[in-house]
């Protein structure tokens, strides 16, 4: 697709966002990305194919609505990805909730002052769906996380508040643009930028013996390139509406360890002790109280429970054909090694 349409991507340097920028450029869009520092700090974006002709990076402050106005000028769509993703923080209100909630409000307000914008696509999360697996339930877009707070899963709380604030703005203001949200599960795959994202860091930790054994936990995974494509399809398809849960496949820790052990990465110190039974779950629940608060809370609310997601809406409405997550995970490991996040073992 070759188009003169300009799309703004907030937080353009992020893991998902950089792939969105890359795919938009590949489709011929003009892209304006917001970043926190001067554009020269992001050479990996400026060197993307098509960037020299069709990518402009603009500094913006997530907490200042007026700083987005130059970035939104003459844009047809805003893909808002900018939001912190950290599990353990000293001040959840300051470090998570404020930037997520006020940042979303700033973007919505700036879009309301930009008459060319027709749609905002917001990167939300399964964290806004639930913060605790329920083995008896299949979670869908109709579910909302109602349990999280500043004390319990503050990251999940921040994502829930931010998405609810966006929908509340649409309901109250009835602006000239509409809203679509993408709610990804654990996003893995290779990174365009030099940083490591939270999901890949978890995989790295599993490979570096951070975990004492194989735990009774599972996660939904999705490739970062599929996640980026979902955002673009949500922008392009006029019929797209509402929320889209984005998860390709659920894997438990045993399956993940087996995948890695049978691959070329089997020489890493992967966990071998089986703690997936009842005794292991009781033991890890007790040990969780010795860990940082939010890590401990995560273990206590997830261990011994199984998550299931229903993703028929994104497959039917957007036509997403997900990559096999096992391939994505192995690509992520190769990428982490090449970028120095994981020691090479020959």
UniProtKB/TrEMBL annotation:
<dbReference type="GO" id="GO:0016616">
    <property type="term" value="F:oxidoreductase activity, acting on the CH-OH group of donors, NAD or NADP as acceptor"/>
</dbReference>
<keyword id="KW-0560">Oxidoreductase</keyword>
<feature type="domain" description="NAD-dependent epimerase/dehydratase">
    <location>
        <begin position="7"/>
        <end position="239"/>
    </location>
</feature>
<protein>
    <submittedName>
        <fullName>NAD-dependent epimerase/dehydratase</fullName>
    </submittedName>
</protein>
<dbReference type="InterPro" id="IPR050425">
    <property type="entry name" value="NAD(P)_dehydrat-like"/>
</dbReference>
<dbReference type="Pfam" id="PF01370">
    <property type="entry name" value="Epimerase"/>
</dbReference>
<dbReference type="InterPro" id="IPR036291">
    <property type="entry name" value="NAD(P)-bd_dom_sf"/>
</dbReference>
<dbReference type="InterPro" id="IPR001509">
    <property type="entry name" value="Epimerase_deHydtase"/>
</dbReference>
<comment type="similarity">
    <text>Belongs to the NAD(P)-dependent epimerase/dehydratase family. Dihydroflavonol-4-reductase subfamily.</text>
</comment>
């Amino acid at each position: 697709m070759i188009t003169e349409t300009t799309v703004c991507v907030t937080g353009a340097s992020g893991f998902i966002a950089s792939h969105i920028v890359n795919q938009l450029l590949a489709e011929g869009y003009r892209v304006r990305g917001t970043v926190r520092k001067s554009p020269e700090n992001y050479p990996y974006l400026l060197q993307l194919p098509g960037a020299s002709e069709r990518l402009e990076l603009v500094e913006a402050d997530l907490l200042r609505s007026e700083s987005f106005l130059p970035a939104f000028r003459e844009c047809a769509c805003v893909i808002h990805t900018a939001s912190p993703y950290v599990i353990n923080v000293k001040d959840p209100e300051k470090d998570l909730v404020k930037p997520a909630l006020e940042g979303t409000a700033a973007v919505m307000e700036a879009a309301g002052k930009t008459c060319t914008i027709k749609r905002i696509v917001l990167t939300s999360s399964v964290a806004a769906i639930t913060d605790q697996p329920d083995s008896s339930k299949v979670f869908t877009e109709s579910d909302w996380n109602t349990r999280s707070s500043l004390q319990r899963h503050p990251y999940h709380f921040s994502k829930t508040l931010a998405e609810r604030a966006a929908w509340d703005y649409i309901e109250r203001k009835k602006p000239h643009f509409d809203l679509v949200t993408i709610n990804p599960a654990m996003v893995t795959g290779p990174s365009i930028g030099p940083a490591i994202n939270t999901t890949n860091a978890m995989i790295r930790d599993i490979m570096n013996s951070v975990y004492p054994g194989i735990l009774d936990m599972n996660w939904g995974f999705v490739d970062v390139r599929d996640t980026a494509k979902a955002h673009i399809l949500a922008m392009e398809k006029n019929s797209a509406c509402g929320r889209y849960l984005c998860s390709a496949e659920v894997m438990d820790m045993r399956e993940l360890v087996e995948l890695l052990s049978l691959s070329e990465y089997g020489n890493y110190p992967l966990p071998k002790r089986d703690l997936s039974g009842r005794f292991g779950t009781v033991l890890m629940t007790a040990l969780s109280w010795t860990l940082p608060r939010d890590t401990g809370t995560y273990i206590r609310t997830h261990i011994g429970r199984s998550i299931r997601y229903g993703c028929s809406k994104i497959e039917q409405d957007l036509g997403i054909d997900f990559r096999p997550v096992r391939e994505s995970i192995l690509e992520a490991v190769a990428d982490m090694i090449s970028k120095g996040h994981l020691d090479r073992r020959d």
